[in-house]
Amino acid sequence: MSRIAGCFQQLSEQGRKALIPYIVAGDPEPEVTVNMMHAMVDRGADIIELGVPFSDPMSEGSVIQLAHERALANGIRLRDVLAMVKTFREQDQKTPVLLMGYANPVEHMGYEAFADAAAGAGLDALLTVDIPPEEVDPVNEQLRRVDMDNIFLIAPTTADDRIDRIVGRASGFVYYVSVKGVTGSASLDIDDVSKNLERIRSKTSLPLAVGFGIKDAQSAAAVAAVADGVVVGSALIRLMNDTIEAGGDKQAAMAAALALLSEIRDGIDGVAS
To answer: pLDDT tens-digit profile of 86-101?
Structure first.
């Protein structure tokens, strides 16, 4: 059983929901990332989603786009992100780590080489925003060879036949995009989320995590009431950047984001399974 499957199974047995925070590797500074990963686990993160900096992050809103720009300016590339995961694994062998990114860096490295490097670093899963299910078999072959999961996005507008293709190739969990738009969007309709999750559940037994539009304990609790996991990213990144722009240092930036993460954990845990 993969770390991700084991994590969701344990949470289900406990009647709890997964908290999955997202940060961009190398933002605001390279040395922050691994420390932040450990601190997020201490604050209740169950799975960590680590963004791979990319020059054209098309599915991201302005907050995460700027984080990608800062990380690239700091010189962070895919191999650096894998090195961060490997360093994280020196102290934490339990917490699943997911890379979220775009196809180009993985294709440039080569699927086989990426799979070997990722497995060697202790990575658990990959989510590539721009590889459609119709084209994913070559990368899936390499990921399965090293027992890594492949996570897919499903949007509110995804048709039933396409959902069938996606869940037939997905493993670990399915990431449902709760709003029409980019990351950081504010219009979260829980009734619509619930309806679409029911539609997806009719086609797969994989856990369903929900992201986009989650910014505080209240919105996280509302999502946790209908989903198996809650993904939060833009709100954490915005807090870190705002703290630094206001004159705070990296420790203050981390503290601000971690305080919000703790509030979100409490909100999720207030929801009965």
So the answer is: 999 999 999 999 999 9
